[in-house]
Known about the structure:
Elements lengths: L13 E12 L10 E6 L15 E3 L13 E9 L3 E14 L10 E16 L8 H10 L5 E4 L5 E4 L6 E6 L10 E17 L7 E8 L10 E6 L6
Antiparallel strand pairs: 1-4, 1-9, 2-3, 2-4, 5-6, 6-11, 7-8, 9-10, 10-11, 10-12
Amino acid sequence: xxxxxxxxxxxxxxxxxxxxxxxxxxxxxxxxxxxxxxxxxxxxxxxxxxxxxxxxxxxxxxxxxxxxxxxxxxxxxxxxxxxxxxxxxxxxxxxxxxxxxxxxxxxxxxxxxxxxxxxxxxxxxxxxxxxxxxxxxxxxxxxxxxxxxxxxxxxxxxxxxxxxxxxxxxxxxxxxxxxxxxxxxxxxxxxxxxxxxxxxxxxxxxxxxxxxxxxxxxxxxxxxxxxxxxxxxxxx
Length: 236
């Protein structure tokens, strides 16, 4: 159960790969409750908040006040569950430089204010086949490091060349078993996958541990951000 002013259970967190789905949505289409959207355009007189920017992610709750106006555009986000994971971490840091001089009575520092984001998604090495979003997401992640060939029992063969793309990853720290009306927080991280470590040891499951380097945005302008909101069951 996710409540404000309460420490959350780490087992409740899930990681997802984020995809754009379908065509751009413009007025007067009603946005689906319980879904995430990318802002792709913002009109002169916009239905978005003043601080919302193109590239931001918005979440539509049961009581959302967002109504698209002329010039506003969004794209629906599809989430692919990274079910292999059992541990997620995200680290943010800023560099400082010492500028202590004769006038200072103690150490003094300055910072350029640039945030560096990195972390890990650790779990077990799974083999997934088929056309589901979950299978595609896992195999695309593996293809960040090597060519992927997947063949099922029926002889269907899919080949994916190695890529070096940025991924949009969502860490929903309250996703598991969340109920309508409960609070959740989600970190959205554009990132490169920088390390894939597999291991198999006696007495333990075969593991797959990923490291990532976060970025401010991806090639399409989707931005790094955190969302705190109230969960609404996704509408069909």
